[in-house]
């Protein structure tokens, strides 16, 4: 209903990648069933047509309708010139999932930090990256999500008042797929935990010799001693720590002040953030308030030690770099949600629930095998081709038929009865251009037969609620309505139409 999605990063796609990114995003929108409307007036009747999303002369690719969901949501738009994207309300099904995939595409292309979110919650599943890999033939991984500190920092600093967050605010474990948790460990993960939970649990006697936690504990003790040994000088000494984290490695090496020099030596192998979060904890400051003032100017020249075995380091790296397995479109839109069938009318009791399949994607079929029609669909099309041939044989070759007005009236009647059944624009105009061709006339007559034959099953659409999205899919995607819709999709796919109908 009121679902919103976003990508929290800057959406800055570099110029050298912009053309590739634009092609990818339009392909994602296409395979995801996003459509634009084309409204035209023919024979005094206004007809609504569908066409895949494409950029206009102004560089804007605008859309608001999803073919698989059969529903309109608030307008979304991709700007080819700037590489920017915006959307409004998304619903919670196909339209939402495709826009979320678009946001994931930004995340994968953008060199900066950023999360894909729905209603403010970070989406940590591999589902969207897997579908992107399938549609685009890419090998994207989840490795960017493992820039743990950068994303942690981004999450809080993007907020106007970082001081109000608590440890519970950051969904650390939701940013990474569950099965990849073993690759999360390391210095950045530890630092995030220390910022979120504090370091009171660090007791040197309980820590492994040479471990990162032991190093942090020793640094904390040095800071405690330096900051608290003279209560009258606490503020001045705190300022010296803030100055220290801004110095170069060369200058930090030269510090001679008693107490501060030991801390400076530790800074040679510890990130500046460690000194800051430990100092903030000791002085009872809010870390994010302090960090927001310092982070742009801190040193980044520390030389970290490796605190784990080579074997563990390799395992983590391999897990992070591993491409996400492709997720086919039929699986991507395979919802296992009983709410889809909530309040199904009694008239449909005992009938199987509607399930999305490649049969719904006949418009996208071609020889590459990305769309695999079921044996049932194949059989239906073959039988339909026989019926079509009978209609064709009934039209004498010497007759010059003109079915323009007949087709327009039929499409108008079909949409009125079945609801949200639209012809594709390319198919419609192709048929108009061949309105004296008996092959096209026979196809229109076959459509008329299907419209009439399926009215008994399709009449259940009268049970649709005022809000399409909360109506049972067994109603909105009833068998009669789907039959007509699928026929129109086959007629719009010239390769598939040629395969079965010969023209």
Quick rundown:
It contains 21 helices and nine strands. It has helices at 15-31, 94-109, 127-136, 148-157, 187-197, 212-228, 234-244, 249-253, 260-267, 272-283, 287-294, 310-321, 329-332, 375-393, 404-418, 425-433, 438-453, 455-458, 473-476, 479-492, 494-501; strands at residues 5-7, 34-42, 45-52, 60-66, 71-79, 85-86, 116-118, 121-122, 423-424. Helix 2 crosses helix 3.
Describe this structure in words.
By secondary structure, the protein is α+β, with helices and mostly antiparallel strands. Helix content is 46%, strand content 9%. The protein has a six-stranded mixed beta sheet with strand order 6-5-4-2-3-9. The longest helix has 19 residues. The chain is elongated. The two termini are 42 Å apart.
Q: Which stretches are low in confidence, meaning pLDDT under 50 for 5 or more residues running?
A: none
Helix/strand-derived class? alpha+beta
Main-sheet strand order equals 6-5-4-2-3-9
Helix content: 40-55%
- Secondary-structure element string: EHEEEEEHEEHHHHHHHHHHHHHEHHHHHH
The overall strand count is 9
Proportion of strand residues: 5-15%
Rounded to the nearest angstrom, the distance between the terminal CA atoms is 42 Å
User: Could you give a short account of the major beta sheet?
Assistant: 6 strands, mixed
* Cα gyration radius (Å): 31 Å
Contiguous helical run count: 21
- The overall average pLDDT, rounded, is 94
- Principal-axes geometry comes out as elongated
């Amino acid at each position: 209903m009121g679902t919103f999605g976003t990508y929290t990063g800057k959406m800055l796609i570099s110029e050298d990648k912009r053309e590739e990114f634009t092609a990818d995003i339009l392909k994602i929108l296409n395979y995801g069933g996003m459509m634009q409307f084309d409204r035209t007036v023919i024979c005094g009747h206004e007809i609504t047509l569908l066409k895949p999303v494409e950029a206009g002369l102004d560089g804007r690719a605008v859309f608001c309708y999803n073919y698989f969901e059969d529903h309109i949501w608030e307008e979304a738009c991709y700007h080819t010139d700037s590489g920017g994207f915006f959307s409004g309300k998304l619903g919670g099904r196909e339209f939402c999932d495709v826009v979320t995939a678009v946001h994931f595409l930004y995340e994968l292309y953008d060199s900066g930090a950023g999360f894909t979110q729905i209603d403010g919650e970070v989406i940590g599943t591999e589902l969207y990256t897997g579908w992107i890999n399938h549609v685009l033939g890419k090998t994207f991984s989840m490795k960017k999500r493992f820039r743990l500190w950068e994303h942690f920092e981004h999450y809080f600093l993007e907020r106007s008042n970082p001081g109000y967050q608590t440890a519970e605010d950051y969904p650390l474990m939701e940013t990474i797929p569950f099965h990849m948790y073993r690759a999360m460990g390391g210095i950045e993960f530890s630092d995030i935990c220390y910022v979120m939970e504090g370091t009171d649990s660090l007791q040197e006697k309980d820590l492994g010799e040479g471990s990162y936690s032991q190093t942090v504990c020793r640094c904390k003790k040095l800071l405690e001693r330096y900051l608290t040994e003279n209560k009258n000088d606490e503020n001045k000494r705190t300022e010296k720590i803030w100055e220290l984290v801004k110095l170069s490695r060369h200058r930090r090496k030269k510090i001679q002040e008693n107490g501060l020099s030991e801390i400076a030596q530790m800074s040679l192998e510890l990130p500046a953030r460690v000194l800051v979060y430990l100092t903030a904890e000791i002085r009872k400051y809010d870390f994010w308030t302090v960090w927001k003032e310092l982070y742009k100017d801190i040193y980044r020249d520390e030389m970290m030690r490796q605190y784990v075995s080579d074997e563990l380091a390799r395992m983590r790296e391999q897990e992070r770099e591993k491409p996400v397995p492709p997720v086919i479109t039929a699986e991507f839109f395979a919802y296992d949600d009983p709410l889809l069938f909530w309040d199904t009318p009694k008239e449909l009791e005992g009938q199987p629930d509607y399930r999305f399949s490649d049969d719904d994607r006949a418009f996208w079929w071609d020889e590459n095998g990305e769309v695999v029609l079921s044996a049932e669909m194949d059989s239906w099309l073959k039988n339909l081709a026989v019926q079509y041939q009978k209609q064709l044989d009934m039209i004498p070759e010497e007759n010059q038929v003109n079915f323009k007005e007949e087709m327009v009236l039929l499409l108008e009647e079909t949409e009125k009865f079945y609801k949200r059944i639209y012809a594709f624009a390319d198919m419609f105009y192709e048929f108009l251009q061949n309105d004296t061709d008996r092959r096209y006339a026979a196809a229109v007559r076959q459509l008329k037969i299907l419209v009439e034959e399926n009215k008994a099953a399709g009449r259940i659409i009268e049970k649709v609620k005022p809000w399409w999205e909360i109506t049972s899919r067994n109603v909105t995607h009833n068998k009669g309505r789907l039959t007509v819709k699928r026929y129109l999709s086959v007629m719009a796919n010239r390769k598939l139409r040629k395969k079965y109908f010969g023209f």
